[in-house]
Specification:
There is one protein chain. It is extended, with a radius of gyration of 32 Å. It is about 70% helix and about 0% strand. The protein has 3 domains: about 35 residues; about 100 residues, no CATH class; about 220 residues, MetI-like fold (Orthogonal Bundle). It has a two-stranded antiparallel sheet with strand order 1-2. Helix 3 runs antiparallel to helix 4, helix 10 packs antiparallel against helix 17 and helix 17 packs antiparallel against helix 20. It has 20 helices and 2 strands. It is mainly α.
């Protein structure tokens, strides 16, 4: 073979030539394109079912299109109002014109509802003003005098301050309400009265109860995962089936079983009374409170702690602990100094997974939590299904999502993403 045909090391002369490099790059691009196409269905699913609804929730939490859609002339007139004195006559006429159109289109209720969310009593004011204005055959000499005649509130600044604040397409009102704040009649931020503070106490309750549930699942799940990981493979597989067995049963059925066990005349209380441990008139309240929520959610979420722990523990050889014992360490010392630190990634993953699941749980607190055992998710559901304040529900959901994301990023920062292991 000629020198031109072979390299100094015996390889082809064309090795390393631009043509070969281009061919390798094309092959690599083709490989990456194939990998991307394989993951494309999953990416589309995540985008359609998760990212788009998430962005929609965020937009709903700041969107405020009611006034611009149904009271456009009012918005236009108030855009130049300085807020120092009552607005001019043109603003009153604009409100009257918009309410007449809204009455004709049957949309004034939406305006009334939106304003009432920020100022209780505005619903009745808008409805009364709309019906009275619709009855007028000819415009009055002064819309301001007519409005004050309908309700003296129109002669005061707070209602106009509210209308101007709600004229913006983007609003922070829902987030203000979500942290138990409100606007004063002068338009300044202030805390709501103590008796009306709902959401901050609910966030705090959700956080500490979720932390307690996470701790209990770790306390119960760690020794269970360790025991299973040290069993022979056949027995370990059987025990893992037992751990996963609750997933084969409807969550509603499991919660109903717990209700039967924990209610005042349920199985547990009947055993306590029958054994003489407690008097019949002193049955402990185990359900419809925070205790019931903690008990049931600990059982429901326990597998989510066991799985990552077992995955990590299974990969740790027994020889590590035996080596420590052979060098004179007590078995307990060998366990805590050798084995336990190696399970830190599993502990972190389990804690993160259970805590995130806990703070967003809905069905269990709803069924067994009563008034004192409900989470912020239950209040979100209330705003969606009953009060129909979707903006406030979206703001609460966005805050909860942000907290979850911060926790995940904080965990990744502390541990270094290499240690995050769910399976």
């Amino acid at each position: 073979m000629s020198a031109e045909a072979t390299s100094a090391k015996g390889g082809p002369a064309s090795a390393g030539t631009p043509a070969l490099k281009a061919s390798l790059r094309r092959a690599e691009r083709k490989k990456r394109r194939g990998a991307f196409l394989l993951t494309l269905p999953l990416l589309l699913f995540i985008t359609v079912m998760f990212l788009i609804p998430l962005l929609g929730m965020f937009w709903l939490s700041v969107a405020n299109t009611t006034m611009t859609s149904y009271m456009p002339q009012t918005v236009k007139e108030l855009s130049t109002w300085d807020g120092k004195d009552l607005p001019p006559e043109a603003a009153y006429a604009a409100v009257a014109s918009d309410l007449k159109v809204a009455f004709k289109n049957h949309t004034f209720g939406r305006v009334a509802k939106r304003l009432n969310e920020e100022s209780p009593g505005a619903f009745g004011l808008i409805n009364k003003t709309t019906f009275r204005t619709a009855r007028l055959r000819t415009p009055p000499a002064s819309w301001k005098d007519e409005f004050v005649k309908i309700d003296k509130t129109w002669g005061e600044k707070p209602i106009w301050t509210l209308l101007k604040r709600e004229s913006s397409v983007i609003t922070s009102d829902f987030y203000v309400a979500a942290i138990d704040m409100q606007y004063s009649p002068e338009g300044k931020l202030e805390r709501v009265p103590a008796y009306a503070r709902i959401y901050i106490p609910l966030f705090i309750r959700t956080a500490w109860m979720s932390a307690l549930i996470t701790f209990l699942t770790l306390l119960l799940g760690y020794p269970l995962a360790y025991w299973i990981s040290r069993l022979p493979e056949a027995k370990a597989n059987l025990m893992m089936i037992a751990v996963l067995l609750p997933f084969w049963t409807s969550l509603l059925v499991r919660i109903t079983a717990w209700i039967v066990l924990l209610q005042s005349h349920g199985v547990i209380n009947s055993i306590l009374v029958g054994s003489g441990a407690v008097a019949d008139t002193a049955r402990p309240q185990l359900i419809n409170n925070s205790l019931g929520t903690v008990i049931v959610m600990t059982q429901v979420l326990l597998p989510f702690m066991v799985l990552p722990l077992y995955s990590v523990m299974k990969s740790i050889p027994d020889s590590y602990v035996r080596a420590a014992i052979s060098m004179g360490a007590h078995p307990w010392r060998a366990f805590w100094r050798v084995f336990a630190p190696l399970t830190a990634s599993g502990v972190g993953a389990g804690v993160l997974l259970v805590f995130i699941l806990s703070i967003g749980y809905y069905i269990t607190p709803e069924l067994v939590g009563g008034q004192n055992g409900q989470f912020i998710s239950n209040r979100i559901a209330y705003n969606v299904q009953q009060s129909l304040n979707w903006g406030l529900a979206a703001a609460l959901g966005t805050i909860l999502t942000a907290v979850t994301l911060i926790l995940f990023l904080l965990y990744g920062y502390i541990t270094g993403n290499r240690k995050v292991s769910i399976t």
